[in-house]
């Protein structure tokens, strides 16, 4: 933001950063093989759903596209609005056949059609669900504004608490595989992830 | 890749007015400095004193205000909804997360403080948390975060630097005026005081205008950030409806903080829009309505 923008109070919302979403479709191999962190077969994308007929039409078209491209891999799509008013599109692999590649392709189709419609600045995050050997849920969150990934491990026993130690371990394990968000204060938690 | 740049048009009118106001302020200040130098007043001393004041304002005012207003920081576990709203807005606005505070008062209001993105505090009152729905609260918080993004506290503090200086000169002259014996010097002092009064009066109005424009810019920023202009409009309606009913004791205590609030805390109606630091509600609602029309593709 330049001096002129500050003086005139002008501010436009940032669009998506250069895409590094597909880093997950190679990184998961390391997760699985070396760290016993298994994909849970679900991923989701969260965005601000504009209450306009044009945006709703974009979403309907997109759902068709994702269902069609997911046809071969049988990826299914569902939609959910959370209590903050954000829209989640949740992608499920068929039972017993988790495929991070298929999910990444599906998520990319969703974000792609929102961007093509000119609403790229409404995209917040993509979330991929994993579970470790102790059945602890581990999320990998991709921040569209920054183009970085970070792990998010909510504490199953306490609401609104996260296991920061585990997250930092995962960061150390995956730093060479995934573009990890360097600023820890940008590791925003997402409570109530529907996957 | 994007076929359209943005859902909202550019608000060039607002930006032009803001630039004009800043230009006029600069002009007034330039004349002021010119007169000070021409008269050869102890300009150096005055500017140093005012500079120190400015630094205190920039670096200390938020802490002083927070200490006097009974604002306390809340943990995510205490206010999960407020934290959740702010976290998502921070992702959307690409901001680091600010400190989140709550002020225990029934008056519904919110404000942001701090001079940069790294040292920001956003605060909501208990009243606003209870009054608004999540979407409305999000609109209000986005308005406050836009103040942060636009660096409004810093812009306003720096813009009012010379107005502060002028008011100091008037006060000095009031306390130490007269008794110099030297006729020429007394005339010089009179000129400085008169010019200071003029500078103060004009810059006061310009600063109020600037403050109103920054409010419009923050409303617009909120709409752009959340994509829901009408949620903020609804929040403003709810807040202003309640503002008139809350006890005036509460309001008077808070009046000094008015420039930071989303809706000014007022015990009496302003005489003229010219002196108000917030634009009238109708104009803010009309601006938000235009944004909603742009969003819906009607314009």
Structural overview:
The complex is a heterodimer of chains A (195) and B (299). By secondary structure, chain A is α+β, with helices and mostly antiparallel strands. Chain A is built from five helices and six strands. Chain A has a single domain (19-186), classed as Ribosomal protein S10 (Alpha-Beta Plaits), CATH 3.30.70.600. In chain A, a hairpin with a 4-residue loop joins strand 2 and strand 3. Chain B has a four-stranded mixed β-sheet with strand order 1-2-4-3, sandwiched between helices. Chain B has eleven helices and four strands. By secondary structure, chain B is mainly alpha-helical. Helices cover 66% and strands 6% of the residues of chain B. In chain B, helix 3 (80-93) crosses helix 5 (134-149) and helix 9 packs antiparallel against helix 11 (281-296). Chains A and B meet through helix 1 of A and helix 1, helix 3, helix 5 and helix 8 of B.
Brief digest:
Chain A has 195 residues and is an alpha+beta fold. Chain A has helices at residues 3-8, 24-35, 53-69, 100-116, 164-174; strands at residues 38-48, 76-81, 86-92, 123-131, 137-143, 148-152.
């Amino acid at each position: 933001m330049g001096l002129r923008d500050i003086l005139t109070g002008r501010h436009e919302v940032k669009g998506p950063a250069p895409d590094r979403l597909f880093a997950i479709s190679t990184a998961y191999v390391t997760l699985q093989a070396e760290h016993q962190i298994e994909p849970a077969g679900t991923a989701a994308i969260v965005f601000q759903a504009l209450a306009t007929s044009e945006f709703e039409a974009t979403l309907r078209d997109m759902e068709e596209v994702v269902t069609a491209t997911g046809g071969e891999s049988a990826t299914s799509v569902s939609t959910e609005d959370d209590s903050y008013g954000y829209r989640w599109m949740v992608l499920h692999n068929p039972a017993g056949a988790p495929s991070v590649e298929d999910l990444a392709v599906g998520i990319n189709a969703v974000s792609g059609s929102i961007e093509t419609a000119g609403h790229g600045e409404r995209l917040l995050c993509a979330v991929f669900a994993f579970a470790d050997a102790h059945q602890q849920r581990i999320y990998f969150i991709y921040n569209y504004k920054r183009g970085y990934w970070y792990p998010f491990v909510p504490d199953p026993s306490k609401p609104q608490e996260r296991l920061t130690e585990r997250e930092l371990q995962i960061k150390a394990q995956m730093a060479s595989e995934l573009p990890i968000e360097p600023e820890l204060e940008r590791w925003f938690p997402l409570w109530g992830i529907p996957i | 890749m994007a076929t359209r740049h943005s859902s909202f048009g550019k608000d060039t009118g607002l930006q032009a007015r803001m630039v004009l106001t800043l230009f006029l302020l600069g002009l007034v200040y330039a004349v002021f400095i010119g007169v000070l130098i021409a008269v050869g007043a102890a300009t150096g001393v005055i500017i140093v004193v005012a500079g120190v004041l400015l630094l205190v304002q920039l670096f200390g005012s938020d802490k002083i205000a927070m200490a006097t207003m009974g604002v306390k920081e809340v943990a995510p576990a205490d206010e999960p909804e407020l934290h959740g709203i702010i976290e998502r807005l921070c992702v959307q606005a690409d901001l680091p997360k600010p400190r989140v505070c709550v002020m225990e008062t029934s008056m519904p209001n919110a404000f942001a403080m701090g001079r940069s993105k790294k040292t920001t505090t956003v605060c909501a009152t208990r009243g606003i948390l209870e009054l608004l729905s999540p979407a409305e609260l999000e609109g209000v918080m986005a308005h406050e975060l836009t103040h942060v993004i636009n660096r409004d506290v810093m812009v306003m503090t720096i813009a009012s630097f010379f107005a502060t200086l002028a008011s100091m000169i008037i006060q000095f002259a009031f306390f130490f005026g007269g008794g110099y014996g030297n006729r020429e010097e007394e005339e010089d002092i009179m000129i400085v005081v008169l010019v200071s009064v003029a500078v103060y009066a004009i810059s006061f109005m310009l600063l109020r205008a600037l403050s109103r424009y920054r409010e419009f810019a923050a409303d617009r920023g909120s709409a752009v950030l959340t994509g829901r202009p009408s949620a903020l409009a609804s929040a403003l309606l709810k807040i202003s409806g309640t503002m008139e009913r809350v006890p005036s004791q509460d309001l008077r205590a808070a009046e000094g903080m008015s420039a930071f609030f989303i809706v000014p805390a007022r015990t009496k109606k302003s005489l003229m829009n010219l002196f108000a630091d917030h634009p009238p509600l109708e104009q803010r609602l009309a601006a938000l309505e235009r944004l909603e029309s742009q969003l819906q593709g009607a314009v």
